[in-house]
Write a structure and sequence with these properties.
By secondary structure, the chain is of the alpha+beta class. The chain has two helices and six strands. The chain has one domain: Roll (Pnp Oxidase, Chain A), CATH 2.30.110.10. The chain is globular, with a radius of gyration of 13 Å.
Length: 109
């Protein structure tokens, strides 16, 4: 995953328990998948209320190759700025999104 820019679908749970799925850029940090989000968005709010999340990543070159993980996500600000800079490079000239200030790292507890 480090060589190609992968996007994935992260699903968090709303306060009422219904799923909320969004597209995210995916990295791997210390062997665990991670993605950026920003304060004030739905994902951090959902994860603070309920840390359960799932992430699905499909190989853009072969849809038969995919990985799915689920478990508890942990919010951290460590490394968020570096991750945001990598994401901007991946967009190759597209307008950068608002500066992300938090990162969700997902791993089984």
């Amino acid at each position: 995953m480090a060589k190609l820019p992968y996007v994935g679908v992260v699903t968090t749970l709303r306060d009422d328990g219904s799923p909320h799925s969004t597209i995210v850029w995916v990295d791997v940090d210390d062997g665990k998948p991670s993605f950026n989000t920003a304060t004030g968005r739905a994902k951090p709010k959902h994860l603070e209320h309920n840390p359960h999340a799932s992430l699905l990543v499909v190989d853009p070159n072969d849809s038969y190759k995919w990985v799915a993980v689920s478990g508890h996500a942990r919010m951290t600000e460590d490394g968020a700025a570096d991750r945001q800079a990598r994401e901007e490079v991946r967009r190759q000239g597209r307008v950068p999104v608002a500066q992300a200030d938090r990162t969700a790292r997902q791993g089984a507890d």
